[in-house]
Amino acid sequence: MLNDIRSGRIAAPEFLQGLIDTLTQRGRAVLGIKPDRDAGEDRDLELLGEALLSRRGEASGVAIAQSLLAAFERAAEPQRLKFLSSLADRFGPDRRAIELAIAAYQRKEGGDGARLEALHAVAEPRRQELIRRLNLAPGGTSSLVRMREVLLSLLREHPELEAVDDDFVHLFSSWFNRGFLVLRPIDWTTSANILEKIIRYEAVHAIQDWDDLRNRLEPPDRRCYAFFHPQLVDEPLIFVEVALTKEIPGAIGPLLDKSRQAIAAREATTAVFYSISNTQKGLAGVSFGNFLIKQVVQDLARELPNLKTFVTLSPVPGFAGWVRRELKSEASAAIDDDTRQAMAAIDEGGDIAQAKDAITALAAYYFLKAKLPSGKPVDPVARFHLGNGARLERLNFLGDASAKGMKQSYGLMVNYLYALEHIEANHEAFAEAGTVMASDKVKKALRAKLSSRDLVLSPHTNSQRKISS
User: Fold this and answer.
1) What is the reported pTM?
2) Could you tell me if 292 and 330 lie in one domain?
3) Where on the tree of life does the source sit, at the highest rank (predicted)?
Protein backbone atom coordinates (compact mmCIF):
# COMPACT_ATOMS: atom_id res chain seq x y z
CA MET A 1 0.00 0.00 0.00
CA LEU A 2 2.88 2.38 0.75
CA ASN A 3 4.17 1.79 -2.77
CA ASP A 4 0.72 2.67 -4.11
CA ILE A 5 0.82 5.95 -2.17
CA ARG A 6 4.27 6.80 -3.49
CA SER A 7 3.13 6.07 -7.04
CA GLY A 8 0.04 8.21 -6.61
CA ARG A 9 -2.43 5.36 -7.13
CA ILE A 10 -3.83 5.93 -3.61
CA ALA A 11 -4.18 9.44 -2.15
CA ALA A 12 -2.74 10.02 1.31
CA PRO A 13 -6.13 10.99 2.87
CA GLU A 14 -7.64 7.77 1.53
CA PHE A 15 -4.76 5.78 3.01
CA LEU A 16 -5.21 7.48 6.41
CA GLN A 17 -8.95 6.84 6.38
CA GLY A 18 -8.32 3.22 5.47
CA LEU A 19 -5.84 2.93 8.32
CA ILE A 20 -8.38 4.37 10.77
CA ASP A 21 -11.07 1.99 9.51
CA THR A 22 -8.68 -0.94 9.95
CA LEU A 23 -7.87 0.15 13.50
CA THR A 24 -11.58 0.45 14.23
CA GLN A 25 -12.34 -3.03 12.89
CA ARG A 26 -9.50 -4.54 14.91
CA GLY A 27 -10.62 -2.69 17.99
CA ARG A 28 -14.14 -4.02 17.58
CA ALA A 29 -12.74 -7.52 17.29
CA VAL A 30 -10.70 -7.07 20.49
CA LEU A 31 -13.74 -5.77 22.37
CA GLY A 32 -16.22 -8.20 20.85
CA ILE A 33 -18.36 -5.38 19.44
CA LYS A 34 -20.34 -6.22 16.31
CA PRO A 35 -21.32 -3.35 14.00
CA ASP A 36 -24.81 -4.73 13.42
CA ARG A 37 -25.38 -5.02 17.14
CA ASP A 38 -24.23 -1.42 17.65
CA ALA A 39 -26.73 -0.19 15.11
CA GLY A 40 -29.69 -1.62 16.94
CA GLU A 41 -28.70 -1.53 20.59
CA ASP A 42 -28.69 1.45 22.90
CA ARG A 43 -25.44 1.45 24.82
CA ASP A 44 -24.77 3.19 28.15
CA LEU A 45 -23.03 6.39 27.09
CA GLU A 46 -21.45 7.03 30.49
CA LEU A 47 -19.97 3.53 30.70
CA LEU A 48 -18.64 3.87 27.17
CA GLY A 49 -17.03 7.14 28.24
CA GLU A 50 -15.37 5.49 31.23
CA ALA A 51 -14.21 2.62 29.04
CA LEU A 52 -12.74 5.04 26.50
CA LEU A 53 -10.76 6.88 29.18
CA SER A 54 -9.48 3.63 30.67
CA ARG A 55 -8.17 2.09 27.43
CA ARG A 56 -4.55 2.43 26.43
CA GLY A 57 -4.75 0.53 23.14
CA GLU A 58 -5.28 2.75 20.10
CA ALA A 59 -7.40 0.25 18.17
CA SER A 60 -9.80 -0.42 21.04
CA GLY A 61 -9.97 3.29 21.84
CA VAL A 62 -11.01 4.22 18.31
CA ALA A 63 -13.67 1.49 18.33
CA ILE A 64 -15.14 2.65 21.65
CA ALA A 65 -15.09 6.29 20.50
CA GLN A 66 -16.99 5.39 17.35
CA SER A 67 -19.52 3.35 19.35
CA LEU A 68 -20.11 6.20 21.80
CA LEU A 69 -20.60 8.79 19.08
CA ALA A 70 -22.96 6.52 17.13
CA ALA A 71 -24.95 5.78 20.27
CA PHE A 72 -25.24 9.51 21.06
CA GLU A 73 -26.52 10.18 17.53
CA ARG A 74 -29.23 7.52 17.98
CA ALA A 75 -30.15 8.50 21.53
CA ALA A 76 -33.35 10.35 22.42
CA GLU A 77 -33.08 13.76 24.11
CA PRO A 78 -33.35 12.45 27.71
CA GLN A 79 -30.41 10.08 27.14
CA ARG A 80 -28.41 12.83 25.44
CA LEU A 81 -29.09 15.20 28.33
CA LYS A 82 -28.07 12.51 30.82
CA PHE A 83 -24.73 12.00 29.05
CA LEU A 84 -24.03 15.73 28.72
CA SER A 85 -24.87 16.17 32.40
CA SER A 86 -22.42 13.40 33.23
CA LEU A 87 -19.77 15.38 31.37
CA ALA A 88 -20.45 18.23 33.82
CA ASP A 89 -20.13 16.16 37.01
CA ARG A 90 -18.91 12.59 36.54
CA PHE A 91 -16.29 13.63 33.98
CA GLY A 92 -15.40 16.90 35.66
CA PRO A 93 -12.15 17.55 37.58
CA ASP A 94 -11.13 15.08 40.30
CA ARG A 95 -11.64 17.28 43.36
CA ARG A 96 -9.73 15.00 45.70
CA ALA A 97 -6.77 14.93 43.33
CA ILE A 98 -6.86 18.74 43.13
CA GLU A 99 -6.85 19.04 46.92
CA LEU A 100 -3.84 16.71 47.17
CA ALA A 101 -1.99 18.62 44.44
CA ILE A 102 -2.68 21.94 46.18
CA ALA A 103 -1.42 20.51 49.46
CA ALA A 104 1.74 19.21 47.75
CA TYR A 105 2.29 22.61 46.16
CA GLN A 106 1.90 24.38 49.50
CA ARG A 107 4.34 21.94 51.15
CA LYS A 108 6.79 22.80 48.35
CA GLU A 109 7.39 19.15 47.52
CA GLY A 110 9.66 19.12 44.47
CA GLY A 111 10.54 21.96 42.12
CA ASP A 112 8.14 24.78 41.35
CA GLY A 113 7.75 23.72 37.74
CA ALA A 114 6.93 20.12 38.60
CA ARG A 115 4.42 21.12 41.27
CA LEU A 116 2.66 23.57 38.95
CA GLU A 117 2.55 20.97 36.19
CA ALA A 118 1.04 18.40 38.57
CA LEU A 119 -1.59 20.92 39.71
CA HIS A 120 -2.43 21.85 36.13
CA ALA A 121 -2.75 18.19 35.12
CA VAL A 122 -5.28 17.29 37.82
CA ALA A 123 -7.23 20.56 37.40
CA GLU A 124 -8.14 19.75 33.81
CA PRO A 125 -11.63 18.19 33.63
CA ARG A 126 -11.64 14.53 32.57
CA ARG A 127 -14.17 15.44 29.89
CA GLN A 128 -11.50 17.32 27.92
CA GLU A 129 -9.48 14.15 27.48
CA LEU A 130 -12.69 12.26 26.70
CA ILE A 131 -13.55 14.74 23.94
CA ARG A 132 -10.02 14.47 22.55
CA ARG A 133 -10.31 10.69 22.38
CA LEU A 134 -13.74 10.89 20.75
CA ASN A 135 -12.15 13.05 18.08
CA LEU A 136 -9.97 10.08 17.05
CA ALA A 137 -12.97 8.16 15.70
CA PRO A 138 -13.71 8.24 11.95
CA GLY A 139 -15.82 11.37 11.43
CA GLY A 140 -15.23 12.26 15.08
CA THR A 141 -14.77 16.00 14.51
CA SER A 142 -18.05 16.31 12.64
CA SER A 143 -19.86 14.23 15.29
CA LEU A 144 -18.51 16.41 18.08
CA VAL A 145 -19.65 19.56 16.29
CA ARG A 146 -23.15 18.06 16.13
CA MET A 147 -22.91 17.04 19.79
CA ARG A 148 -22.19 20.64 20.75
CA GLU A 149 -25.15 21.78 18.66
CA VAL A 150 -27.31 19.56 20.88
CA LEU A 151 -25.59 20.99 23.95
CA LEU A 152 -26.32 24.56 22.87
CA SER A 153 -30.00 23.72 22.41
CA LEU A 154 -30.15 22.61 26.06
CA LEU A 155 -28.12 25.38 27.68
CA ARG A 156 -30.93 27.82 28.37
CA GLU A 157 -32.86 25.31 30.50
CA HIS A 158 -29.74 23.63 31.87
CA PRO A 159 -27.18 26.32 32.75
CA GLU A 160 -25.20 23.72 34.71
CA LEU A 161 -23.89 22.58 31.32
CA GLU A 162 -22.05 25.87 30.70
CA ALA A 163 -18.74 24.43 31.98
CA VAL A 164 -19.06 21.63 29.44
CA ASP A 165 -19.69 24.16 26.69
CA ASP A 166 -16.63 26.15 27.78
CA ASP A 167 -14.50 23.04 27.29
CA PHE A 168 -15.95 22.41 23.83
CA VAL A 169 -15.13 26.01 22.85
CA HIS A 170 -11.64 25.68 24.33
CA LEU A 171 -10.88 22.55 22.29
CA PHE A 172 -12.63 23.71 19.11
CA SER A 173 -10.68 26.98 19.21
CA SER A 174 -7.51 24.92 18.92
CA TRP A 175 -8.77 22.42 16.36
CA PHE A 176 -10.29 25.12 14.14
CA ASN A 177 -7.62 27.78 14.45
CA ARG A 178 -6.52 29.72 11.38
CA GLY A 179 -3.58 27.41 10.74
CA PHE A 180 -5.92 24.53 9.90
CA LEU A 181 -8.40 26.46 7.77
CA VAL A 182 -8.24 26.47 3.99
CA LEU A 183 -9.72 29.36 1.96
CA ARG A 184 -11.36 28.15 -1.26
CA PRO A 185 -13.25 30.13 -3.90
CA ILE A 186 -16.80 28.99 -4.61
CA ASP A 187 -18.06 29.46 -8.16
CA TRP A 188 -20.62 28.00 -10.53
CA THR A 189 -18.28 25.07 -11.34
CA THR A 190 -17.95 24.02 -7.69
CA SER A 191 -19.43 20.60 -6.88
CA ALA A 192 -23.22 20.48 -6.54
CA ASN A 193 -22.82 19.02 -3.06
CA ILE A 194 -21.18 22.22 -1.82
CA LEU A 195 -23.43 24.52 -3.84
CA GLU A 196 -26.50 22.94 -2.25
CA LYS A 197 -25.04 23.75 1.16
CA ILE A 198 -24.42 27.37 0.15
CA ILE A 199 -28.13 27.62 -0.68
CA ARG A 200 -29.14 25.96 2.58
CA TYR A 201 -26.75 27.84 4.86
CA GLU A 202 -27.19 31.36 3.43
CA ALA A 203 -28.48 33.21 6.49
CA VAL A 204 -28.53 36.88 5.48
CA HIS A 205 -30.25 37.13 2.08
CA ALA A 206 -32.01 33.86 1.32
CA ILE A 207 -31.15 32.23 -2.01
CA GLN A 208 -34.46 31.56 -3.73
CA ASP A 209 -33.42 28.92 -6.26
CA TRP A 210 -30.58 27.72 -8.48
CA ASP A 211 -31.01 30.68 -10.82
CA ASP A 212 -30.58 33.02 -7.87
CA LEU A 213 -27.43 31.16 -6.83
CA ARG A 214 -26.08 31.31 -10.37
CA ASN A 215 -26.66 35.07 -10.41
CA ARG A 216 -24.47 35.35 -7.29
CA LEU A 217 -21.65 33.09 -8.48
CA GLU A 218 -21.26 33.04 -12.26
CA PRO A 219 -21.05 36.70 -13.44
CA PRO A 220 -17.53 38.19 -13.71
CA ASP A 221 -18.34 40.81 -11.06
CA ARG A 222 -19.27 38.27 -8.37
CA ARG A 223 -17.10 36.28 -5.97
CA CYS A 224 -17.68 33.85 -3.13
CA TYR A 225 -15.13 32.40 -0.70
CA ALA A 226 -15.37 29.85 2.09
CA PHE A 227 -13.21 28.43 4.84
CA PHE A 228 -12.92 24.65 4.99
CA HIS A 229 -11.33 22.33 7.56
CA PRO A 230 -9.44 19.13 6.62
CA GLN A 231 -11.77 17.04 8.79
CA LEU A 232 -14.93 18.52 7.22
CA VAL A 233 -13.86 18.43 3.59
CA ASP A 234 -17.20 19.21 1.93
CA GLU A 235 -18.60 21.38 4.73
CA PRO A 236 -17.95 25.11 4.39
CA LEU A 237 -17.53 26.54 7.88
CA ILE A 238 -18.23 30.14 6.89
CA PHE A 239 -18.60 31.86 3.52
CA VAL A 240 -18.74 35.39 2.21
CA GLU A 241 -20.45 36.68 -0.94
CA VAL A 242 -18.81 39.60 -2.74
CA ALA A 243 -20.06 42.02 -5.40
CA LEU A 244 -17.58 44.00 -7.50
CA THR A 245 -18.98 47.46 -8.25
CA LYS A 246 -17.99 50.96 -9.35
CA GLU A 247 -19.27 52.66 -6.18
CA ILE A 248 -20.30 52.00 -2.60
CA PRO A 249 -23.88 50.65 -2.77
CA GLY A 250 -26.65 51.89 -0.50
CA ALA A 251 -29.22 49.15 -1.14
CA ILE A 252 -29.22 45.38 -1.51
CA GLY A 253 -31.94 45.15 -4.17
CA PRO A 254 -29.81 46.27 -7.14
CA LEU A 255 -26.99 43.92 -6.12
CA LEU A 256 -29.26 40.87 -6.16
CA ASP A 257 -31.31 41.89 -9.20
CA LYS A 258 -31.16 39.05 -11.75
CA SER A 259 -31.68 41.50 -14.62
CA ARG A 260 -28.78 43.77 -13.67
CA GLN A 261 -25.98 44.39 -16.17
CA ALA A 262 -22.75 42.73 -15.03
CA ILE A 263 -19.45 44.56 -15.43
CA ALA A 264 -15.96 43.22 -16.10
CA ALA A 265 -13.96 42.62 -12.93
CA ARG A 266 -11.22 44.98 -14.15
CA GLU A 267 -13.76 47.83 -14.34
CA ALA A 268 -14.69 47.56 -10.66
CA THR A 269 -13.22 49.87 -8.06
CA THR A 270 -15.13 48.58 -5.03
CA ALA A 271 -15.50 45.14 -3.43
CA VAL A 272 -18.72 44.80 -1.44
CA PHE A 273 -19.12 42.08 1.21
CA TYR A 274 -22.89 41.76 1.29
CA SER A 275 -23.39 38.46 3.09
CA ILE A 276 -21.36 36.44 5.60
CA SER A 277 -22.86 33.22 6.94
CA ASN A 278 -21.65 30.79 9.57
CA THR A 279 -22.80 27.29 8.64
CA GLN A 280 -22.18 25.11 11.71
CA LYS A 281 -24.31 25.84 14.78
CA GLY A 282 -22.00 23.63 16.81
CA LEU A 283 -19.11 26.03 16.14
CA ALA A 284 -20.88 29.12 17.49
CA GLY A 285 -18.42 31.26 19.42
CA VAL A 286 -15.42 29.95 17.49
CA SER A 287 -14.38 32.95 15.40
CA PHE A 288 -13.61 32.58 11.70
CA GLY A 289 -15.09 35.76 10.26
CA ASN A 290 -12.26 38.11 11.17
CA PHE A 291 -9.73 35.89 9.39
CA LEU A 292 -12.03 35.39 6.43
CA ILE A 293 -12.67 39.08 5.74
CA LYS A 294 -9.01 40.07 6.04
CA GLN A 295 -7.74 37.25 3.84
CA VAL A 296 -10.36 37.85 1.15
CA VAL A 297 -9.46 41.56 1.13
CA GLN A 298 -5.80 40.65 0.64
CA ASP A 299 -6.55 38.08 -2.07
CA LEU A 300 -8.84 40.43 -3.99
CA ALA A 301 -6.33 43.29 -3.76
CA ARG A 302 -3.70 40.99 -5.24
CA GLU A 303 -5.96 39.64 -7.98
CA LEU A 304 -7.53 42.98 -8.93
CA PRO A 305 -5.23 45.99 -8.32
CA ASN A 306 -8.01 48.23 -9.65
CA LEU A 307 -9.99 47.68 -6.43
CA LYS A 308 -9.50 50.66 -4.13
CA THR A 309 -12.43 50.38 -1.73
CA PHE A 310 -13.50 47.43 0.44
CA VAL A 311 -16.85 47.78 2.21
CA THR A 312 -19.77 45.79 3.52
CA LEU A 313 -23.45 46.29 2.93
CA SER A 314 -24.77 45.10 6.26
CA PRO A 315 -28.22 44.58 7.73
CA VAL A 316 -29.02 45.81 11.24
CA PRO A 317 -31.11 42.93 12.62
CA GLY A 318 -31.65 44.33 16.12
CA PHE A 319 -32.41 47.94 15.29
CA ALA A 320 -36.22 47.85 15.12
CA GLY A 321 -36.48 45.89 18.37
CA TRP A 322 -34.22 48.41 20.11
CA VAL A 323 -36.29 51.34 18.79
CA ARG A 324 -39.51 49.76 20.05
CA ARG A 325 -38.02 49.29 23.51
CA GLU A 326 -36.83 52.88 23.61
CA LEU A 327 -40.24 54.18 22.54
CA LYS A 328 -41.79 52.43 25.53
CA SER A 329 -39.42 54.22 27.90
CA GLU A 330 -40.43 57.71 28.92
CA ALA A 331 -36.88 58.36 30.15
CA SER A 332 -35.12 57.25 26.97
CA ALA A 333 -32.17 59.43 26.06
CA ALA A 334 -32.54 58.36 22.44
CA ILE A 335 -36.09 59.63 21.90
CA ASP A 336 -37.26 63.25 21.74
CA ASP A 337 -40.79 64.46 21.02
CA ASP A 338 -40.23 64.87 17.28
CA THR A 339 -38.83 61.36 16.99
CA ARG A 340 -41.70 59.86 18.99
CA GLN A 341 -44.26 61.54 16.75
CA ALA A 342 -42.50 60.45 13.56
CA MET A 343 -42.30 56.81 14.67
CA ALA A 344 -45.91 56.84 15.87
CA ALA A 345 -46.95 57.94 12.39
CA ILE A 346 -45.25 54.86 10.91
CA ASP A 347 -47.14 52.57 13.30
CA GLU A 348 -50.36 54.21 12.15
CA GLY A 349 -49.61 53.37 8.52
CA GLY A 350 -47.96 56.60 7.50
CA ASP A 351 -45.33 56.98 4.80
CA ILE A 352 -42.00 55.82 6.18
CA ALA A 353 -40.22 58.36 3.96
CA GLN A 354 -41.58 61.06 6.26
CA ALA A 355 -39.61 59.49 9.12
CA LYS A 356 -36.25 59.42 7.32
CA ASP A 357 -34.62 62.04 9.56
CA ALA A 358 -35.93 60.40 12.73
CA ILE A 359 -34.77 56.91 11.71
CA THR A 360 -31.36 58.18 10.63
CA ALA A 361 -30.87 60.04 13.92
CA LEU A 362 -31.97 56.98 15.89
CA ALA A 363 -29.57 54.82 13.90
CA ALA A 364 -26.67 57.18 14.66
CA TYR A 365 -27.54 57.01 18.36
CA TYR A 366 -27.89 53.22 18.18
CA PHE A 367 -24.39 52.78 16.78
CA LEU A 368 -22.54 55.58 18.56
CA LYS A 369 -24.23 55.74 21.97
CA ALA A 370 -26.15 52.53 22.78
CA LYS A 371 -23.77 50.36 24.78
CA LEU A 372 -23.64 47.06 26.59
CA PRO A 373 -22.41 47.08 30.21
CA SER A 374 -19.02 46.07 28.74
CA GLY A 375 -18.88 49.41 26.93
CA LYS A 376 -19.14 47.79 23.49
CA PRO A 377 -21.89 48.67 20.97
CA VAL A 378 -25.17 46.87 21.48
CA ASP A 379 -25.30 45.83 17.83
CA PRO A 380 -23.61 42.40 17.30
CA VAL A 381 -22.78 43.05 13.64
CA ALA A 382 -21.14 46.35 14.60
CA ARG A 383 -19.08 44.60 17.27
CA PHE A 384 -17.88 42.10 14.67
CA HIS A 385 -16.82 44.58 11.99
CA LEU A 386 -15.52 47.28 14.33
CA GLY A 387 -13.56 44.59 16.15
CA ASN A 388 -12.04 43.63 12.80
CA GLY A 389 -10.81 47.19 12.30
CA ALA A 390 -13.54 48.53 10.01
CA ARG A 391 -15.10 52.01 10.20
CA LEU A 392 -18.82 52.74 10.24
CA GLU A 393 -19.00 54.62 6.96
CA ARG A 394 -22.62 55.27 5.99
CA LEU A 395 -26.23 54.81 7.15
CA ASN A 396 -28.49 53.74 4.28
CA PHE A 397 -32.16 54.60 4.72
CA LEU A 398 -34.37 51.93 3.08
CA GLY A 399 -31.33 49.94 2.03
CA ASP A 400 -33.42 46.78 2.39
CA ALA A 401 -37.06 47.38 1.53
CA SER A 402 -37.97 43.68 1.74
CA ALA A 403 -40.51 42.51 4.32
CA LYS A 404 -37.68 41.06 6.41
CA GLY A 405 -35.65 44.27 6.18
CA MET A 406 -38.56 46.45 7.18
CA LYS A 407 -39.43 44.22 10.12
CA GLN A 408 -35.96 44.00 11.60
CA SER A 409 -34.56 47.45 10.88
CA TYR A 410 -37.14 49.73 9.23
CA GLY A 411 -35.18 48.95 6.06
CA LEU A 412 -31.91 50.36 7.43
CA MET A 413 -28.59 49.02 6.14
CA VAL A 414 -25.07 50.28 6.80
CA ASN A 415 -21.65 50.25 5.15
CA TYR A 416 -18.53 49.34 7.10
CA LEU A 417 -15.32 50.45 5.39
CA TYR A 418 -12.19 48.30 5.50
CA ALA A 419 -9.38 50.77 4.77
CA LEU A 420 -6.23 48.66 4.62
CA GLU A 421 -4.00 51.39 6.04
CA HIS A 422 -6.25 51.93 9.08
CA ILE A 423 -7.48 48.42 9.98
CA GLU A 424 -4.94 47.75 12.72
CA ALA A 425 -5.26 51.18 14.35
CA ASN A 426 -9.07 50.96 14.28
CA HIS A 427 -8.96 47.47 15.78
CA GLU A 428 -6.69 48.60 18.62
CA ALA A 429 -8.89 51.61 19.40
CA PHE A 430 -11.98 49.45 19.58
CA ALA A 431 -10.37 46.61 21.53
CA GLU A 432 -8.67 48.84 24.08
CA ALA A 433 -11.22 51.61 24.60
CA GLY A 434 -14.39 50.51 22.79
CA THR A 435 -13.98 53.43 20.39
CA VAL A 436 -16.47 53.34 17.53
CA MET A 437 -14.67 54.60 14.45
CA ALA A 438 -17.24 56.38 12.30
CA SER A 439 -17.28 58.81 9.40
CA ASP A 440 -18.11 62.47 9.93
CA LYS A 441 -21.39 61.96 8.08
CA VAL A 442 -22.53 59.32 10.57
CA LYS A 443 -21.49 61.48 13.51
CA LYS A 444 -23.41 64.47 12.13
CA ALA A 445 -26.56 62.38 11.93
CA LEU A 446 -26.57 62.19 15.71
CA ARG A 447 -28.79 65.00 16.95
CA ALA A 448 -26.98 67.19 19.46
CA LYS A 449 -29.77 67.01 22.03
CA LEU A 450 -29.72 63.21 21.89
CA SER A 451 -25.96 62.87 22.39
CA SER A 452 -25.67 64.21 25.92
CA ARG A 453 -25.18 60.85 27.61
CA ASP A 454 -24.55 57.21 26.79
CA LEU A 455 -27.27 54.63 27.12
CA VAL A 456 -26.25 51.38 28.82
CA LEU A 457 -28.34 48.41 27.77
CA SER A 458 -28.83 44.86 28.96
CA PRO A 459 -26.30 42.29 27.73
CA HIS A 460 -29.12 40.01 26.59
CA THR A 461 -29.09 40.27 22.80
CA ASN A 462 -30.39 37.79 20.28
CA SER A 463 -27.86 35.14 19.31
CA GLN A 464 -27.43 35.17 15.55
CA ARG A 465 -26.32 32.16 13.59
CA LYS A 466 -25.29 34.53 10.85
CA ILE A 467 -22.57 37.08 11.16
CA SER A 468 -24.53 39.32 8.78
CA SER A 469 -21.80 41.04 6.82
Assistant:
1) 0.81
2) no
3) Bacteria
